[in-house]
């Protein structure tokens, strides 16, 4: 199996955690996509994933699966013992709902902030983020505010729950965790009052699948691009 991704980026990092959780890292060939050079917006990549995004999974029979949730479901169910997407109807529904909230209220807000309120991925990517649109920075700022509201929402959830969707670590935790890392990289701080969210983040950072996931530092050329 192949995964098209790029080290250090938020959504690919979700799948690295999934692979570590399921013990599948050694079965994957990782193919690096040049996001900064807009490789994912060119015809060969768009033919594989019309949304022009990574990660993308290619199975040995050529089947192409995009969307981190779909890729997670595939790996979680491979061994017949799903641990990240729920076993019972109730667990499955709760995880699905909280995961979706993490994407819409948090990840999408950070993404909008990063691409529209900051320099984002740089000049080669500008044509794909409407640079001519006069209101883009203001829209990006509003997306940032939406992400901060999302942080407060998840802080409230984690005041009364061990993990985002219940008692066990799930796909919903992975999405919230990756979103917070993305927010930090984009310069959006977690509000000080969100103590439950910060404590949960420290705990998740220590999980073996999160702590030891391989290849998740930004590539040197990307660090240079981000001025780090
Ligand atoms: N809904 C997709 C989102 C994937 C996504 O936004 N990936 C980012 C990298 S973290 C990307 O490809 N960004 C490039 C772009 O939007 O042009 C998923 O869940 O996998």
TrEMBL record:
Signal peptide: none
Domain GST N-terminal, first and last residues per copy: 1-83
Gene3D superfamilies listed in its UniProt record: 1.20.1050.10, Glutaredoxin
InterPro entries, per the entry: Glutathione-S-Trfase_C-like, Glutathione-S-Trfase_C_sf, Glutathione_S-Trfase, Glutathione_S-Trfase_N, GST_C, Gtt2-like_C, Gtt2-like_N, Thioredoxin-like_sf
Pfam families documented for this protein: GST_C, GST_N_2
UniProt domain GST C-terminal: residue ranges: 88-226
Classification via SUPFAM superfamilies: GST C-terminal domain-like, Thioredoxin-like
Protein name: Glutathione S-transferase
